[in-house]
Amino acid sequence: MTTPTDSNQTPVGDLALLGLLQLVSPALPIGAFAWSQGLESAFELGWVNNEDELGDWLEGVLEDGLTNCELPLLIRVQEAWANGDGQTVAQWNEWLHATRETAELIDEDIRLGAALVRLLVSLDLLPEKDLIPEDPGYVTLFAWAAHMRSVPARQTLLGFAWAWLENQLAVACKAMPLGHTAAQRLTERLRPQLVMAVDNALEKEDHELGPVIPGLALGSALHETQYSRLFRS
Predict the structure, then answer these.
(1) Which of 6, 106, 203, 211 has the fewest beta carbons closer than 10 A?
(2) Can you give the pLDDT at residue 209?
(3) What is the rounded distance in angstroms from the CA atom of residue 217 to the CA atom of residue 120?
(4) By the 8 A CB rule, do 72 and 149 touch?
């Protein structure tokens, strides 16, 4: 699948690159730091206890989760935004909500989406109201912002995956004995995996989409009643 902004050979323009960096920055005021996406439960339950186990966990979520869900979805939604196809945007937005196995994961996507809407309003970048689906999720609005910044689809996926990795490592640094140097080692370990995930996501057909991460879903469900926690998911 291609988009009007998609080309493996086309360099990202300077303004597009800066727009992407703005979008994936931890300083983006949407509250992403408040969510662990089930990772805090993995620490609490003893599934992840050290640097190597964290790397294994992240590789698994990337391969079986993002590669099959968020990343290929971004391609499709960014194309729909580029075509002014609000119906397709809404269909994929609803599909994504349906793949969220727990209340926390659904709540995260909707709340981050709502926060991104507020930010886009302040930047005068919000799409026309008739194009915005009900309860637009973070992925849906991320695709819109990337489209508005003229970011090629491949770079959109790389930026999203990078933001996910940085968030997960920030969670680990707060919730387990993981220093910043160890986090950088994991970044080096995962960087090639991010590229591979994007390569695979770009080849996915519609019928192949859908996350297969039961461990994360179980951890997220258990997190809802976890006694002591730092994060909302």
Answers:
(1) 203
(2) 95
(3) 30
(4) no
Confidence band, pLDDT 50/70/90 cuts, at residue 78: very high
- DSSP letter at 206 equals G
Token representation of residue 147: 């489209």
Specify the pLDDT at position 8: 45
Whether the Cβ atoms of residue 117 and residue 78 lie closer than 8 Å to each other: no
Is residue 201 a contact partner of residue 63, using CB atoms and an 8 Å limit? no
Alpha-carbon distance of 12 to 166, in angstroms, equals 22
Residue 154 lies in a domain: yes
- Residue 125 falls in which region: left (phi positive, over 0), alpha (psi -120 to 50) or beta: alpha
Can you give the pTM of this predicted structure? 0.89
- Token reading at 200: 């695979």
With a cut of 60, say whether residue 46 has pLDDT above it: yes
Please state the separation of Cα 16 from the chain's center in Å: 19
Question: Structural domain of residue 54, as residue ranges?
Answer: 33-223
Residue 206 lies in a domain: yes
Domain of 110, CATH number, reads: 1.10.4190.10
For residue 14, being part of any structural domain is answered with no
The answer to whether residue 12 is domain-embedded is: no
Domains contained in the chain, number: 1
